[in-house]
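User: Here's a chain of 299 residues. Predict its fold as tokens.
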Amino acid sequence: MKKCAFLTLDERGDYVIDDEHAVAPLADRGWQVSTVSWRQTEIPWSGFDAVIIRSTWDYWNDVTAFLEVLSRIDRETHLANSLEIVHWNLEKTYLADLDRQGVRIVPTIWPLEVKPDSFQAFSAQLGGDQLVIKPVIGANGDRAFRVSPDDSRERREMISACFADRRALVQKFMPGILTEGEFSLFFFNGEFSHAILKTPAENEFRSQEERGASIRSVTPEPQLLARGHQALAALPEMPLYARADFVRDDESDFLVMELELIEPSMYLRTDPGAPVKFARAIDARYGAAGKDAVAPVKN
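Assistant: Prediction complete.
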């Protein structure tokens, strides 16, 4: 019996976690799955044939400790996604790497500091009055704000204070988020699996399910699927799993908002074939005598 660990967080809270949908398909392939906290110290990582980073949705509060744990796992067994990919994807400056390789991203800047009077310059640089600002390291929409240079000084001071001790990125706000939503494409071992459309709740711009967004399964348009494959082809290596988030622009093309390679929710419940595809991908990589069977991407 092969053993696999799904890394999670200590307290589930209101998070919707559906990784359990992959347990039965993995069992069909001879895998025993344990769900363990990334902070646990009792079970030796060497006891698993593979450790898969999944719902570790508190790591950004203790990044140093998280990376130390992943390094330990990487020394003792197979880690997915790889430690190299985690380091590359940890800071959202990876978007600049994608941009340099010709992948279309939402217009983004990474300012050295954020002051109450900075937003006018950000707006001019990005070519839009409405902006989104969020941490360079973070997820789940935490500390993400929609802001305009015309907002009250009090609000701009509040937002700038949130980034006094952390780096920020600023993106042009894309109206398509409100009129249509955010598309997420899921890939396992580089092969497309399924897609969803996340539409924010009323009076909200963030598309997380925990923030009231509606989720529905969709079949991606050919152009959207092509953009997804283009984004994956720009990676330094092919990850076990990837979630590519897109928004439609004014020309009906699709721009990368984020490329989630560390701990994306994969919405396995939204597609009946997705759990089997995920299990098949894990088995293909780590089921044959512990050998990684998927070659890195060659750019």
